[in-house]
Amino acid sequence: MTTLLEKKIFTYEDINSLPEGNYEIIDGERRDMTPTGFEHGDFESSLSEILRKHLKSKGYIAVGEVGIVIKRSPFRLRAADVVYISKEKSPEKPKGMLEIPPDLIIEIISESNTQWEIAERVKDYLSIGVNKVVLVDPFTETVTVFTHGKKEAGYYSFDDEFELIDGVFVKLKEIV
Q1: 74 preceded by cis ω (within 30°)?
Q2: What is the CA radius of gyration of the chain?
Q3: End-to-end CA distance of the chain
Q4: 28, 9 in Cβ contact below 8 A?
Q5: Residue among 114, 115, 153 at smallest CA distance from 134
Q6: Which residue ranges form the domains of the chain, and what is each CATH number?
Q7: Residue 37 CA: distances (Å) to CA of 4, 9, 44, 138
Q8: Phi first, then psi: what are they for 99, rounded to 5°?
Q9: Which of 52, 56, 84, 128 has the largest count of CB atoms under 10 Å?
């Protein structure tokens, strides 16, 4: 006799009792994420330091798979590497999973990410009104910048200076 394990389907009502772990919830189903390496964490740290230096008085910065609600039904929860949210959008420091769109999300691409996964993640972030999504690819040493409402993305090498967010310009070669 074979017993099939039932897959747990998560709903928005589960948001305050989600199990520990490194995962996203896509249309109610848990998708485990591979732990990242040191380089990935170093990128997160360096980029969050720049944001803190320039924007700490204007908003809040968080790193480390920050939960962002994309959709309540079916429940869709993304985990972002670096997030900035202005005090204009959130006068109080956010707690728990973000239910308002951040101004900026930075994703550092890992070896385990597929092109399809990355495209789906960017589409989700832009669909909820995130102003800017920055993809950092350590393997090709490129940066792709997606801006809400623009059809074309900006494409940069680590040697190029680009605008991370309003008035904050970076050249990744100089910070990593």
Answers
A1: yes
A2: 17
A3: 56
A4: yes
A5: 153
A6: 12-175 (3.90.1570.10)
A7: 34, 29, 11, 12
A8: -115, 5
A9: 84
